[in-house]
Design goal:
The chain is an alpha+beta fold and about 400 residues long. Helices cover about 50% and strands about 15% of the residues. Helix 4 crosses helix 5 and helix 6 packs across helix 8. The longest helix has 24 residues.
Length: about 400
Amino acid sequence: MDGDYTWDMSGYYGKYSFTEDRLTMRQVERIFQLEPEPPKAAFINDYIIAAVMEQDYIYFSFFLHHYEGRLNGRIRSFLLREGLDRYDPDRFLDYKMGCILAMLERLPDYDPDKGADFLTYVHHHVGNALLTCRMREEGGSFSSLDEYKAVRGIAWLYNEHESEQEAIVRYAEQNGCSETIAAEYLAVARKNRNQVPFYMTVQDEDSEETGEDVTRDDSWNYTDILWNGMQAKAVQAAFDKLSYREQIYLEKRNAICMTCGRVSPLSMRTTFDDLATMFEGSSASGAERAYRRALDKLTKNLVEASALHVVELKRKSQRKKGKKITAAVYEYQVDYDGEWGVISFDFVKGTAEIVKLAEPDSVKNDFFFANRVVSHILSLPDDDLLKKLVLPLEQEWTSTAVEQSTE
C-alpha cells in the first residue's frame, strides 16, 4: 500500500463568494476522502489490522475513506433523534471529530485475534462519543457521562408514566439505586426540560436504527422549534390563535400537549388514519392535508409575531442523468412576502449561482437568506430534493446578520 496521500477537499468547495469562508455540509461529509484513491483491500477491517500490526496510522486514514459515508449516516441519525439540526456543518463536524477521536483512542487496544471486527469493537464507544458531544450542548451541568445517561434514562421513564413517583420507583428498581437518587436525577431532567428535547430520545442509546422514518414527513420539525431554542410564549400565543380542530391535529400528530408541555416520543404520535377516525367523514389523505394546513397557519402566525423567519422554496426546473438529479433551479421567498429570488444549482460540481435575490436579500444586501438556501439545498441527498419545502429560521439565529446589514 504505497503512495502519497493527502486530505483534499478542493473539489467540494462552492464558488459562491459569500460562503467561501465557511465549511459546507458537502465538505464536512467528505472531509476524510483521499486523493488518489487508497489501495484496495478485501475487507475494510484489513486497513485496521494493518494499522495495528505496522503501527502506521496511514492505514487508519484508508479505513476512514471507506467508512466515512456510514459514519455520516450514524451521526445524522443521532442528530435527527435528538431534534437537532442535521445540516449545521460546524455541529456535524464537532460530532464527527468526537467519533474519530473515540476510535483512535481505542485503536491501540484492538485485538483482531479475538474475532470481532473493529467497528463492532468501537460501536459502544462511538455511541458514548455522540452522547458526550450532546451532553456538552445541554443547558445543565453534568459531572460525568454516566450522570448524563442517568438523567436521560429517567426522563424517558417520566415521559412514559403519568406520575413522577411512578417514574422514580421504576427507575430505582431498574437501576438498583435509592428513590432519593432517582428523584434527584428526575429533578435535573425537569429543570432542563424547556431547554433541551430530552423526551425526543430513544431508549437504546447505541442503536443506529430506530425504525422511525421522520425525515420526510413534516415540512419542519414542530417539536424541535417548540422546545429547542424558540421562546415558548411566542409559540403558545401563535398556537392559541388556531381553531380547536387545528390544535388537535398539531398536538396529536406531533405527540405534544400544549396545556401541560408534555412531549412524547415521535413513535407515539397519532397516524393520519387515526386522525381521520377522530374527525368522522375525513380520509387519511384529507387528515394529512388538514394537518399541513394547520402547520402552515401556525408557521404564518409565528412569522407575523416576528418569532420566526421562513424561507419558502419551489423548484422551477431540473436536469437528470439517469435517476440522479444533476442540476436544478429553485425560487425562494422570505416570510411569504415580496419578490421571489432565483438560485441555480449544479450538484455535480457542488456549486450554486444566484440568478436573482429575493426582496429581503436585495434590500439589505447581506445575502443571508440566499446563503442559507444554498447551504441547505447542497447538503440534501438526491431523494430529499423535493419540489416544495419550507425552511424555518429562528429570529434570534438571524438577528446578528440582519442587524449587521442595516448598520
